[in-house]
């Protein structure tokens, strides 16, 4: 049986569609046309239809998409019809900001444990009430809390070691904010977030405009 490879850009756009549909649902909108949804998301209607076609048939010709129904389907596709437990390593400014960000909880991402090596921080709680454990306890605490996704906010020279230890849990995926490429087995998925790369991209487009 052959499995269709879904473009990464399509998955990213599904997240955008999901956010837009949530706002429409909160505004008591029941039906949305592909044109209106496209305008909200900054794409064209054909792109929305193409993205959704990877996963089946959605909407009614001449009517549009039923907001709550499409939102449910997209969340199911993205695996957002459940909660995900996160483990944070690195409780500096960025790590603390991520834990405190209410959008994570709203989207079903729950930080269940946090780690650091700073003796001043270990044993204390973050503003959200989450206890900071020493990184030496990573494997044990991650297993106890059922963490499934690791979030790395450490200096780059420590990131690979943390990724290796996550594999001992095992952790299924890693969101990596450290500016370095991680080496992990195929069973672990990694998403790298490097803000300087985004700024470089902006600088290029501004310069070449």
Give an account of the 3D structure.
This protein is α/β, with parallel strands linked by helices and 209 residues long. The chain folds into two domains: 8-78, Winged helix-like DNA-binding domain superfamily/Winged helix DNA-binding domain (Arc Repressor Mutant, subunit A, Orthogonal Bundle), CATH 1.10.10.10; 84-196, NAD(P)-binding Rossmann-like Domain (Rossmann fold), CATH 3.40.50. It contains nine helices and eight strands. The protein has a six-stranded parallel sheet with strand order 5-4-3-6-7-8. A two-stranded antiparallel ribbon has the order 1-2. Helix 1 (8-26) runs antiparallel to helix 4 (67-78). The N and C termini lie far apart (47 Å). The model has no long low-confidence stretch (mean pLDDT 95).
Write the layout of secondary structure elements.
Layout: H1 8-26, E1 31-32, H2 34-41, H3 45-53, E2 65-66, H4 67-78, E3 84-89, H5 93-100, H6 102-106, E4 109-116, E5 132-134, H7 138-145, E6 149-152, H8 156-167, E7 173-176, E8 189-192, H9 195-208
Parallel strand pairs: 3-4, 3-6, 4-5, 6-7, 7-8
Antiparallel strand pairs: 1-2
Helix pairs in contact: 1-4, 2-3
